[in-house]
Amino acid sequence: MNEAAAGNVPAPREQIAGLTFALVLLTPDHVIAQVNPAAESLIGRSARRLVGRGFLDVVGFDDSAMIDRLMGEEAQLVARGLTIRVDGSAQLVNMTVSTLAAHPGWRVVTLSDARQGDRFSEEDRAGALRGPAVLAHEIKNPLSAIRGAAQLVARKLGESDRALTDLITDEVDRIAQLIDRMQRLGREQPEPVGPINLHAAIRRACETVNAASSAPLPLREEFDPSLPPVLGNEGALVQVLINLIGNARDACAEAEKPEIVIRTRFVSGLVMNVIRLGRPIKLPIEVQVSDNGPGVDPALRDHIFEPFVSSKKNGQGLGLALVNKLVRDMNGRISHERDEAGGWTHFRVHLPMVK
């Protein structure tokens, strides 16, 4: 390396700040000595509030054996799919613990969201969805013929006998709507993106869900009015919000006092590697849709963004799969979390902002 190139090498602190995963430096007494921006985002607290605190006072573990290993003298530790608790909220993470040879007792802990991109790569996800989309296209033609035949038969029947033909056309229409969703899931070309007023998109989605509801939404807004425009597709973002708000409405409908909370905020340090673009993207804008319903069936929580997985009795399992695709097409990220202690379910969407 020549001297000019060496002079441009980022300082170690800058390199740590640019990491896409959370990094925490611990003293021999397990006190937090340093954190990077990704750790601030994952834990939800600033470096000023974290440095000087005991690591186990900030991050809790359900597995007591994991605590023993952290407190022990084990040199290396790697754990995948580990549940941690931060302020009472559970998060599923991958964790590594490493020692510093030149500084006995000091440790470096890394934490990353176990749900981010681990289940499917972008290529695997596209391949999994392309098959149903092709099949959907082939099914549409005979469906149109069935609907047309039912309408012709209906013209020759008396009024009292048309219930069956009406049932046929209604079911054909329902299947056609399902196929339309499958085709949207298989679409490979993302919609164009541009500047969007996030709060305007939220209010438009709320108006749509309200119009389709039998009662006003039990909604509370907690907005950060200083947020800059997000970079996304307006139609796709509104559709994402309609799905999430509609799901929240249905989820808390049987609660004693149903409540939906929509929060927006600016988070620093959250970055996602976008394979399609070949580079990391900062995602500082967060919108969170929460409800006080019973939550998703624990057996389905790790699969709710996959096609044909639904916790609803008559659900088709395409709503959240479509939401996940639309968010990813905007180079964003969506996550789900259940707060059992507080009785809340949270869906968080993180998006890039306009430069």
Describe this structure in words.
α7 (122-155) runs antiparallel to α8 (162-186), α8 (162-186) runs parallel beside α11 and α9 (198-211) crosses α10 (234-251). This protein has helices spanning 3-7, 12-17, 37-43, 47-50, 55-58, 64-71, 122-155, 162-186, 198-211, 234-251, 319-329; strands at residues 22-26, 32-35, 60-61, 77-86, 89-99, 107-113, 194-196, 219-222, 230-232, 260-266, 271-274, 279-282, 285-291, 333-339, 344-351. The chain is α+β, with helices and mostly antiparallel strands and 355 residues long. A hairpin with a 4-residue loop joins β14 (333-339) and β15. The strands form four sheets. The chain has a six-stranded antiparallel sheet with strand order 2-1-6-5-4-3. The protein contains eleven helices and 15 strands. The chain has three domains: 3-113, PAS domain (Beta-Lactamase), CATH 3.30.450.20; 122-186; 194-351, Heat Shock Protein 90.
